[in-house]
Amino acid sequence: MVGRGSKERFARALLVFPDGTSRASIERDPVPRYVARGNGSYLIDVDGNQFLDLNANFTTLIHGHAFEPVVEALAHQLHLGTCFAYPTETEIALAELLCERIPRVERVRFVNTGTEAVLFAIKAARAFTGRSKIAKLEGAYHGAYDWAEVSLAATPDNWGSPSGPRSTPSYRGMPASVLDEVIVMRFNDADAARRLLSLHGRDLAAVIIDPMPSRAGLIPPKPDFMAAVQETARMNGVLVIADEVLNLRQSFEGASALYGLVPDLITMGKIIGGGLPIGAIGGRHEVMEVFDASAGRPLLPQGGTFSANPLSITAGLAAMRHLDHAALAHLEDLGNIVRNGIARAISKSGAPFCVTGAASLFRVHPMSQEPNDNREAYPTPNASKSMKQLVNFFAENGIILPHGGAASISTPMNRTDAELVVEVFSGFLDSHRACWT
């Protein structure tokens, strides 16, 4: 339960926000927890309670809260100015870092959010191919662009047959024309991917793939599925967009390099902004030329008052420079401790849970068998109840665990923190044994 301070603030918020919050992703039970400050891998709420933060603003804060190199860089930049109508040298430096580090990123354009990055990547694919339709994964989150939201909220009541998923709206009033322009595939179904991409290939500008979609289960991709998507796309002139807004953190070169995906375009965000709003589109020089305005109006105009703003770029450069091989190895070590420890606790107790994820990410599922796709990961009412109990138990024991999403490790965490996560999870299984025995 949250304290009096959060309750008082929520009462005020209800008078100015439609539901008392400023974004739908805020968790509440029924009142959200209001934060006063963050320090390293911990956050402190307005009532003075301290929590190990496994949310980290939805995996953004890979170096935790108030990371000193970022704080120092921002303090310096604030005295120089916060935004200009002209470019800065710092944006070149961050673009150079991304081009040097991420395979297939030969050119970069900065935007303000991951949503914008996906939006412009899809538009770039359309401009390059002259086609309008896209293909995407059922249940995968790619931001708040209409075409990218199709079948994000698909349920057993409307998602259609296993071999031919239905394009479903994510909100009331979504244009039917949008649904007609999106082909939906199931994750890890190689045969269906080949069939659907071949059937619609002439009309598709791109297929957008999150190498390990978070909301669809944080499930590893099967090699034959990745191969099927790439080979069929190439045969039909369909561009491959890798959405790494969340999963870029999986390795020094990102997630695509880990799983054998060779995309034409990559969308980035979250960790590349050092805790400030940012997004980026990167990709092959030939495709990125659709943004080229040097000879007049480009095939795809792209602007933005705050795109490549000095604060986000400065914070991102400081954060990414400190995300070196040693830092990523540290994150992976801690991730392995957490995932392996949780798996052992589940095996010992026989509880109906499993754990997925990779590198610095993990997700607990209230089901015995590890799912292969969004449909298998879709929670039953009883499973949702179990997850709510788990999240509340973690909060009671000083840990913020995201409800139904990716939990993330940050570089300020240490082995003791990782072992605490496993200890609290084991404590939950022990205290709720009667629920499944």
Q: What does this entry look like structurally?
A:
The protein is built from 16 helices and 14 strands. Helices cover 39% and strands 14% of the residues. By secondary structure, the protein is an alpha/beta fold. The mean pLDDT is 96. The longest helix is centred in the C-terminal third of the chain and has 25 residues, at 325-349. A hairpin with a 4-residue loop joins strand 2 (42-45) and strand 3 (50-53).
- The number of E-state strands comes to 14
Flag low-confidence runs. none
Compute the number of helices: 16
**What would you call the shape?**
globular
**Structural class of the secondary elements?**
alpha/beta
Concise account of the structure shown:
39% of the residues lie in helices and 14% in strands.
Task: Give the helices and strands, then pairings.
Elements: H1 4-13, E1 35-39, E2 42-45, E3 50-53, H2 56-59, H3 68-80, H4 89-101, E4 107-111, H5 114-129, E5 133-137, H6 146-149, H7 176-180, E6 182-185, H8 190-200, E7 204-209, H9 223-235, E8 239-243, H10 256-259, E9 265-269, E10 279-283, H11 285-288, H12 310-321, H13 325-349, E11 354-358, E12 361-365, H14 374-377, H15 381-396, E13 399-400, E14 407-408, H16 415-431
Parallel strand pairs: 3-13, 5-6, 5-7, 7-8, 8-9
Antiparallel strand pairs: 1-2, 2-3, 4-10, 9-10, 11-12, 12-14
Helix pairs in contact: 3-12, 4-12, 8-9, 13-16
